[in-house]
Structure formats: structure tokens, C-alpha cells
User: Fold this.
Amino acid sequence: MIDLEKKALSTFYQLWDTWNHPTDNSIKESYSTWATDGKGIGSSALEIWRGQDDFKSFCKEMFKQNPGGMKLDTTWIEAYKINEHLVALWGEFKITIELPVKNIVIDPFRITALLQLIGDEMKFIQFHSSEPDKGSGQWWPGTEEPKTYEAVSILFTDFVGFTNIVSTINPNKLVAELNEVFAAFDSLSNSNEMMKVKTIGDSYMAASGINNPNEHAVRAVKTAKEMIEFLEERNKYNRIKWDMRIGIHSGPAVGGIIGSQNLSFDLWGDTVNMASRMESAGMPNKINISRDTFELIKQKYSCTHRGVIEIKGKKKVDMYMVD
Assistant:
């Protein structure tokens, strides 16, 4: 005789195990726990599943947002057999979501579900989850104030003549080019303990000092020099030649995770704006920095004073070019 309650619990943990260890197979495995017409409501108002297709879309997006997975710790869980085909399940849990800059902890996280025996497998036919008003992690969107970082260095890159290059190559080639270059930039940023913040078109933004404040400006300049070296070497053998400007500014910034569906870390403030101005006022294949950054790196890098230069907004600032 089948122990439906144990089988329902096994199906429940099978689902969460795939979410905790996301792989290509995990996505398919998670679908197998869901009935074709299974319905559910997640913790967000946008998480409503009216069948397996909705659930598939949710899983794909979730794995995309949280490649590190979602760890489930059980506080308590109970299963109750309603009849020979149905089991009700409910419980309370702690969920840990690993993001690049911090972990989010949702505790408690409550789930109620109804599972049905279909063939010889238990499937979710009803699912509902809810979370408290606040997560106990450092910051959960909409529940905590973003964090102020007292000393960071922001780096911006931008390709010179991008519009002209775009007009000469097909879109697939353009995407492939940007993907290859930005993947290399990601690797260089990671190796120097910088964090990629985002890309906007052909612009790349990274920050130093988010996780490790020590020598944040030095590490930003080192990364910038390595980016230029990478492009120079690549240009020797590649038909499409990329030249770029790089700008860096150092100072305080505010950062946090934004969005309700596509969670992303971002930074705001005058430091970010000034770093962008350093880039736009820069020169091809050169690193343009502010006086604030210069004061932090002058013992390790030789620089040339460019003088006081007017930037957008009619403000004049001291600029230096890293030699």
C-alpha cells in the first residue's frame, strides 16, 4: 500500500532540491512535480501560475535571477491524507537566496499545498506561499533602506565610434562581439575583486569597494589597465577594432537591490554621475580619473595632470590621465 503522505513529502523536497541546485536538468525535474493544470500563487503578486506552462516560465526566470539557488531549511512540515488520491501539505521554512553582493534570508516562509496521485506520481495541483513583511537578510526589496558605501570607486567604459561600427556589421555579429568583450571584462573585474554592476548598450559599469574597501581605487585602475591591454591584444587579430574610453571616480555611493521580478544590484549618487563624466571626457584607450581617485592611487601609478576641464552641467573639475 502506498504511503501517500511520505510520497507527497518526497515530491515536495524533490521540487526544492532542484531549486537549491539549479542546472539545466533541474528545470526539467522541477516541471515533473507539477500537474498539467496545477495552479499556484507565489509570495509576489506577479507569481500566479494557471498551469504547467506558467510554472515553467516562472522556473526559468527564477533560475536566471538566482543562479546560486535557493536553500530551504525546514522549521516544521506536516502532511495529511485527504483520500486515496489527495494529500494536503503545509509548513514553515527558512529560505536563503545567495546573490552576488549578499544573502537574502526569508524567515519564516510559509507554504500550503495540495498534491494529487496521478498515475504513480504525486503532483502539485494547488500551491500557495507567503512571506513575512521583512526578510532577515541585509536587504529585501521594499523592506529595508539601501546601504551607503562610504568609499568606492566606480568605473565606466564606452566604445569609441560605436554607432559607426554598428552600421557595418549584422546584429548577430554585434551581439557576439559585445558578449565576448564583456565576458572578458567580467573575468578581469572578478579577479580584481570588483563587481560588475550593469551594461547599458556598449557601456560597462563596475564598482570596487563593495565587498572589500581596501585599495578600491588601486584595484579599479588595475582593472581598467587590464581591460585596455585585453582590447589592444584582441585588436591585433580581430577584424573589428574596438577603441574605448574609461573613466573612474572615487567617493561615497548608495547601493541596493531593485526590482520585484528581475532583481538587480545598482548604485546611485554623485560618485556614479562623476565617474560617468570622467568617461565621457576621456580619450580613446586612456584612463581618465578625477582628483579624488588620483589622491588614492598616486603612490602606485604615474599620472599626467590634464588640468581643470568643464564637464556636463558646466562644472569644472580636475582630471588626470593614468600613464
Q: What stands out?
A: The longest strand covers residues 103-118. The chain has two domains: 4-130, 147-322. Helices lie at 4-20, 24-31, 52-65, 162-166, 171-191, 216-237, 270-280, 291-297. DSSP finds eight helices and 14 strands in the chain.
